Amino acid sequence: MNFIEELKWRGMIHDMMPGTEEQLQKGMTSAYLGIDPTADSLHIGHLVGVMMLKHFQRAGHRPIALIGGATGMIGDPSMKSKERILMDEPTLRKNQEAIQAQLAKFLDFDSDAPNRAILVNNYDWTKDYSFLHFIRDIGKYLTVNYMMAKDSVKKRLASDSGEGLSFTEFSYQLLQGYDYLFLYENYGCRLQMGGSDQWGNITTGTELIRKKANGEAFALTCPLITKADGGKFGKTESGNVWLDRRYTSPYKFYQFWLNVSDADAEKYIRIFTVLEREEIDGLIAEQQAAPHLRPLQKRLAQEVTVLVHSQSDYETAVEASNILFGNATSDTLKKLDEATLLDVFAGVPQYEIGRKDLAEGIKAVDLLAEKTSVFPSKSEMRKMVQSGGVSVNKEKLSNFDALIDPSYLLGDKYLLVQKGKKNYFLLTAK
Q: Which is more confidently placed, 228 or 114?
């Protein structure tokens, strides 16, 4: 597998330094990509870089994932309008451990293969480096003029925000350049990869290697992913789409990919999966022939959900989707954990009911027409029950005055009422 050719057809190359492809053709090459541990989970905005490392390893090369414990304490000014809030070391260490566990789903760190992935933390080689030694050993090789010419610096200095650019942020590219130099000297690293906004920082590293080590190193960046409508990729109304289920449930994660536009699905399935070109071309042809069946979105959602979570999480997400849009059973409903249940029914009308009202059983008609306003009147509920149009927890209600007691509660807390085919109501016992 030719790494550059693979990235080209997948639409994952933005800039590439001359000589990069030739370097990779010489044999196994080590390349690194940095991730600042600003949270204890990656989000899908990180996935492009992670997939670059995955393809790199698949092509027989050695990926190095760099956790920016040091640079994460400073904050990169690239694409930022103001300075990042600095974090303490315990928080950064906690974040690093969580990110490492997530990366292990994409990269082989543990085998005996010569190209097994390496995880490093730049805090380890900068924590004891004194400021005086750093500016003497590293700072002297790059002029202020060179550093000021970087787009990330120029944009911040020209910003109308009035924030300016602190020396802390200005030094970021020097620290990132030193990372590259360190990995070049200690791990034989010859390539740094990242998003297109990192080009300036990456080329600072190649310049430092050229001047200080009299060596040759290379740079490759991928495009920043956008949506077809110009919106920001990976953002929803509730914020980032995270890889950690504590912040984005597998169901919501699955739904994000399932609901992308046709144009985005065609682009994303190349970037975020390892499906071969022929299979993707086949899916695109299917989509064009029957767009209403959404084969691209379904396969994209399956591949990424399995990769990030698991096959069982994917299957649960599909079953959860069928609760709203298919013929799911009460057994399916009972299997859902609380987070998924709330995600599935996030947009439906919700009511609180008193736990004491259920203690000895309450007639369904009283619960749904008096204690709540699921039905505007008891007579309307009677008619709909008689016509078979009312369900509780996906089971048809045969008698309008059936007793509802705590045994009905899902997770000892919820009741799902369905009125007709599409109207759902979630009742919470408090």
A: 114
Burial of 329 (0-12, 13-18, 19+ CB in 10 A): middle
CB 183 within 8 A of CB 202: no
Cβ contacts of residue 45 below 8 Å, gap of 6+?
A: 225, 233, 234, 240
How large is the C-alpha radius of gyration of the chain?
A: 27
Residue 131 in tokens: 């400021």
CA–CA gap between residue 371 and residue 359 (Å, rounded): 14
Q: Which two tokens stand for residue 140?
A: 């002297």
- Mean pLDDT across the stretch 12-23? 97
Return the structure tokens found at 68: 């920016």
Nearest-CA neighbor of 253 among 305, 298, 299, 295? 305
CB contact at 8 A, 289 and 323: no
**DSSP label of 65:** E
Q: Provide, rounded to the nearest whole percent, the portion of the chain with pLDDT above 70.
A: 95
Mean pLDDT computed over 368-396: 94
Please give the Cα distance from 56 to 35 (Å, whole number): 16
pLDDT, residue 81, reads 45
Tokens of 29: 């090459």
C-alpha distances in angstroms, 390 versus 72, 334, 397?
Answer: 54, 18, 6
Q: Are 176 and 193 in contact (CB under 8 A)?
A: no
Q: Would the pLDDT of 79 be above 50?
A: no
Mean pLDDT (whole number) for 98-124: 94
| Residues designated catalytic | 38, 43, 46, 80, 84, 176, 197, 232, 235-236
- How far is it, in rounded angstroms, from Cα 154 to Cα 166? 13
Contact 427, 413 (CB under 8 A): no
pLDDT band for position 326 (50/70/90)?
A: low
